[in-house]
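Complex record, two chains
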Amino acid sequence: MIAALAIWVGGWWANVRLARITGNRWSGLAAPVIFGTTLLVLWELLVRALNVPGAILPPPSAIGLAFASNLPTLWADFVQTFVKGALSGYIIGCGAAFLMSLAVDRSDFLKRGLLPVGNFVAALPIIGMAPVFVMWFGFGWQSKAAVVAVMCFFPMLVNTVQGLAAADRMQSDLMRTYAASPLQALTKLKLPAASPFIFNGLKICTTLALIGAIVAEFFGSPTLGMGFRISTQVGRLALDMVWAVILVAALAGSTFYGVVTLLERAATFWHPSQRGR
Amino acid sequence: MRSLVPILTVLAAMIAIWYAGAVYLNANWAYQQAERQDRVLTTSQLIAETWSQDRPRLPAPHQVATEIWETTVEKKITSKRSLIYHGWVTLSVTLAGFGFGATLGIALAIGIVYSRAMDMSVMPWVIASQTIPILAIAPMIIVVLNSVGMQGFIPKAIIATYLSFFPVTVGMVKGLRAPSGMQLDQMKTWNASGLQGFIQLRLPSSLPYLFTSLKIAVAASLVGTVIGELPTGAVAGLGARLLAGSYYGQTVQIWSALFGAAALAALLIVAVGLIERIVTKRMGFGR
C-alpha cells in the first residue's frame, strides 16, 4: 500500500518536473509513458496488497502471462474478428458511403434531405441491429461485417458529404473558368478539399468497426472470435484471459487508428492541421 | 422549412426500400407455406403474405408500428410487456450515466486546462481510452460488479459514464481554451482572480462547445446503457427486449425495441438542444 502511494507521488512529481521542461520533444512523449507505467504499477501493487481475487481484477502481470501463453488462440480470434469481420465491413461500409456521397453531392435536393437524416441515424444505437443481422447472415463473419458496414456507413456519409461541400465558392468558380469537367473538378479540387473530412470519418469508423464486430459476436458466433472469447471466459470467471483479449482489442484498435492517421498525414500533408508537429 | 420536402422524400424512399426488402426477404417463407398448402401465389398475394407474417425475417413498417402502438398505448405502463416501462428503465440509467459522465468530463477538462502536467500526462490516455472497445467489455464489467454485489442500476450507469465522459472532456478542453490571449490579458489587467477569470470568461466561452459535445455524449450514453442491458439476463430495458427478441425469433419485438431506442435518442438530443437554446438566449447569444 505504502509503496503504491509512494510510486503514485513519485510519478506525479516526475510529470510535474517534465511539464516545466518545454520545447523538448521527448518530454511530450515521456509524460504519458510515466503516467501509464505509474498506473500499471499502482494497479499491480494495490491488487496484491489488498488481496483482490483474480476473479474480480487480475494484476497486470497475470494478464501478461495469459496473453503470452495463449498467443495462438488470441491470433485466431484476432483474424476471425478483426480481419474477417471488422476490416471487411469497414471497407464495404466506408466504400459504399464514399460512392453514395459522390452521388449525393451532385444533387442539392438529396444533400438537404440526406444530411439531417444521416446525422440523426449516426447518433442512433445502430449496434442494436446486430441480432437482426446475425439472423439474416448466420453466425459466420458475414453478419459481423454487415453490422460493421451499416455502423460505418452513416458517419462516413455525413463527413464525406460535408467535406465535398467544403471547397470555396471562389475555387469552384475558378474551376468553371478553367472549363473543368465535373470529373476534373472532383479529382482536382473537391476530393483534396474534402480529404480532412474524409479522414475524420475514417478515423471515427475505426473504433466503431471494432466495437461492432465484437458486440455482434455476443449474439451468436462460431467458436472463435474476440467477442466469443470474452463472453465465454467471463462465464468461467477467467478474467486474466478476458483482459488479454481486451489487450488485443486495444492494440488492434490503436494500430488501426494509427495507420489511418499515418495515411491522413501522407495524403493531407498540406493542410494547416498537419503543420507544426 | 426549406429542407422539409427533401427530408420527407428521403424518408419515404427509405420506407419504400424497407417494404421492398420485406417482400424480398420474406418471399422464401411465403412460397414454402403456399407449397405446403398446395396454393399458387399470385404477385399481389405474395406481397400481402410477406407483409403479414408472424415471425418475418424483416417485418414490414406497419407491423412494427402496430407492435409499438400496442406495447406503448394499449398496455399498462407497469406491465412487463410495455415498451414504456422498458424505455423508462433504459432512460433512467442513461440519464444517471450521462450526468456522471458530463460531471467527470468537465472536471477532467478543468484539470487539463489548468495543470500542464495533467495536460501532458492524462490527455493522451483519455484519447487512448477510447480506442479500447469499451462496449465489448461491457459484459465483463457487469459480471464482475455483480460478483462484488452490485446489480442492476450502477454497473450499467458506469458503462454509460465511461462512454459519455470522453466527448465532454475533449469538447470542454477546446471550449475552455477558446478565449484568445488578448481576452485573457484583459482579465489580468482588470486584476481578476483566477476564479473570476474562470467563471466570467472561460466558462461562458466554452458553452457552445460544451453543448455540442453533450449531444454526442447523451447519444453515446444511451448506446452504452442498451449494450449494458444485454448480459443482465434480459430482465428489463430496451437492450433486454432486443436480446429476448433475438432469443425467441420475435423480429417484430426487436424492431420495435430498436425504434424505441431511436425515439429515446431523438428525445434526449432534442432535450439537450432545447436547454442549449434557453441557456444561450439568457446569456445573450440568441440566434
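Note: Chain B touches chain A through 64 residues (CB under 8 Å).
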